[in-house]
Design a protein that fits this description.
Elements (H helix, E strand, L loop, with lengths): L4 H10 L3 H6 L18 E2 L2 E6 L13 E7 L5 E7 L5 E7 L2 E6 L14 E5 L4 E4 L4 E5 L6 E7 L7 E2 H7 L3 H6 L9 H7 L4 E3 L1 H7 L8
Antiparallel strand pairs: 1-2, 2-3, 3-10, 4-9, 4-11, 4-12, 5-8, 5-10, 6-7, 6-9
Amino acid sequence: MILNSITRLALLTEAYSIINQFKLLPNDTQFIFNFNQYQTISGKGGKLIIANQKTFPALVGTRLGMVIGRLGYKSYGINTFHIHPQSAKLQLVIQGHLKTKMIPENSILNNNGTRRIIKNDIRPFQMTPFYQGSIYMQFNPNYTDTIFVASFANKDFGAGQVLDETFTIIDDIVTASFGQIIAREDINTIHKAIPASVTLSIEKCLEIYSIQRRAQ
């Protein structure tokens, strides 16, 4: 019987034993994932190739996942503020340089009572953890590509872009959350302007479009 990818994934997920799972993967090549492929998870500042149970069904039952990312193939890429709701992450830089920021949770504070933001410069073959549910971002500060590998402890780690999710809620809760400085009628306009998960830095956008930075 020839199975399409959706049917195979459903059967693997529902299989009552590992023996049945292996029967659904009869070809040895089904245990290889090719990161040299195009996926639609990309933006103006880079691209992500994701191996999870959907894109790599052999991961069903393993509690594992992985991403290879490239930031800055059009220079100064940003992986915007996001969370992974189902997993912590280990991120290893292979080439280039990443600046990272992570906000763990409400109760983790500096000595002066302000919210703690963990900031780091990650160089080649250095690694940093990002905790499950924490908000974080990565930025390539160089005019060269940065390539990283991210491993997850869940085959379906999920992702949520913080600003996109926030401004999807078009009602007074959002305006109240921003202290009434954003008008309700502007929320949809802001939401439409929010970029994909990987975008260009402000400085690069100003350079490309020949825009002068507004005086502070």
